[in-house]
Amino acid sequence: MSEIDRQINPTGAPVEVTIILPHRGYRTLALGMMWRARELVVLLASRDVKIRYKQTILGGLWAIIHPIVTMIVFTILFGRMAGLPSDGSPYPIFVFAGILPWQLFASALSQSSNSLVANQNLFTKVYFPRLLLPISSLVVAMVDFALALLVLIALMAWYGVMPTWAVLTLPIWLLLALASALAAGLWFSALNALYRDVVHVVPFITQLLFFLTPVVYSSSLVSDKWKLVYGLNPMAGVVEGFRWALLPSAPAPGALVAVSACVVVVALVTGLLFFARMEDTFADVV
Q: N or C end of the chain: smaller count of CB under 10 Å?
């Protein structure tokens, strides 16, 4: 035994050594450890919410002001001046019902895409499943969504719009919106750790998808022969389904939603595999 070994282990007793080897494939995600560390998601999300509204005068009211102002502008420009159809619903409610799921997706995508870089000082020092970082970003986006949803409920009561049994499907569309954001966020967050150009690409893609999503207009304006292609944008099916769940005059979603759901599943599975493959390099390149 060398002098260094004697200083570390003066008794000379056998020492158990645990060697942690990296997993391959989906096992890198450490799903079991993620469940045991699920409380960390709440802690990360609460921290991000506090930081977001820290030293602001209005605080959480910004989550309500933003969609309201957007609704007013869109109602004037597209509802009154452009005269776009609203599927038989008052245009303010029609556009607000499209803004809510879209802002949920856009906010979750923006925060999840930057989650690794923003928390580099944390995960480079302490080990925990890295997938918890983009997932916690979804929780933050849900907080803003819940506050804005109260405004939509008040608008529906003001205009006397009562939802039908389809409102029971609302959790499905919320889950699909979050899955869409997480799928894209997994790809962009992993790429953002390697190439910081991603931080400039995400806003551009988000803005492009906005015009390809029926937020201010109805998907009925899209020709039937292009509906399936239009459904390749996952948020197109989400927004249509969200309106159908809340507005009684909104048409039921058809094949458009099926295409969007398939795109989300493929993007989420491939995003998880890509994130798992790149996870071993995050601490070195971020």
A: N
